[in-house]
Structure formats: C-alpha cells, structure tokens
Specification:
Layout: H1 4-13, H2 26-35, E1 39-42, H3 44-53, E2 69-71, E3 76-79
Antiparallel strand pairs: 1-3, 2-3
C-alpha cells in the first residue's frame, strides 16, 4: 500500500511526530502506517479535504506545518494521526 518514497519520507521525518522512532526499517514503517490507518493523498487540496471530512478544524495557513502531515516531495502528502 505504501511505496518506497512514502516509507522513506516517514522514516526520515518520524521524530517530528513521535518522541522516539517507531520504525527502523521500511518494513516496520509499512506495518506501523497500516496499523494507524495512515493515508496518502494527492496534493494540498486533498489534505484540506481529508481534515474537513474527519471533522478536524485545522487552520489552512498552518495545516502543512502540522506534525501529522508529511510532504513526500512529489506532490503527495502522508497523513499520520497519532
């Protein structure tokens, strides 16, 4: 479900969201992301729609700086609700 770019992004930036690493390998990262129902969305519009649908009130100006929003670097975003 999660490709290499997504897993690499999460492994590199996971300490933004968690006080210690929750995964050391791509396999562990994939397992963790599946367990917490992480979501990959295509673009900023879908990030905003995700939070709106979840009923989470986020400021559109700061939503992309939120710890749970990871910029994959190819236009997609990984959303991990801790």
């Amino acid at each position: 479900m999660f490709d290499d770019k997504v897993l690499d992004c999460f492994l590199k930036d996971q300490l933004r969201l968690f006080p210690e690493k929750v995964a050391e390998t791509p396999e562990e990262a994939a397992e963790f992301l599946e367990e917490v129902f992480a979501t990959v969305v295509k673009g900023k519009k879908e990030v905003l729609e995700y939070f709106e649908e979840e009923g989470i009130d986020m400021d559109p100006e700061t939503i992309f700086d939120a710890e749970e929003v990871f910029d994959i670097g190819d236009g997609r975003y990984l959303i991990v609700e801790a």
